[in-house]
Amino acid sequence: MLQQVAMNSQRTRPIQKFAKAASQCSVEATAYGKCIVADYNAVHKDKCAKEFMKLKDCYLAASKKP
């Protein structure tokens, strides 16, 4: 039981992994945010698809780093 508790405390929680990866994509996140905010009353599907894909690619690359 004690060994199991020790193993669980060493695991990286998914939110921690997300936060670490997202923190490495501030440039892409800023560009995406600016695109959305530029005309937030007219947001529609794929409005900022290019910026979103760059953010997604950055996040996926960062999340694969050890």
Shape descriptor reads: elongated
- Gyration radius, in Å: 17 Å
Proportion of strand residues: under 5%
Could you give the order of the helices and strands? HHHH
Secondary structure topology:
Layout: H1 2-10, H2 14-22, H3 26-38, H4 49-64
Structural overview:
One of its GO terms (cellular component) is mitochondrion. InterPro entries: NDUFAF8. One of its GO terms (biological process) is mitochondrial respiratory chain complex I assembly. This is IMS import disulfide relay-system CHCH-CHCH-like Cx9C domain-containing protein. This protein has 66 residues and is an all-alpha fold. It has helices at residues 2-10, 14-22, 26-38, 49-64. The model has no long low-confidence stretch (mean pLDDT 86). The protein is elongated. It has one domain (13-64). It contains 4 helices and no strands. The longest helix is centred in the C-terminal third of the chain and has 16 residues, at 49-64.
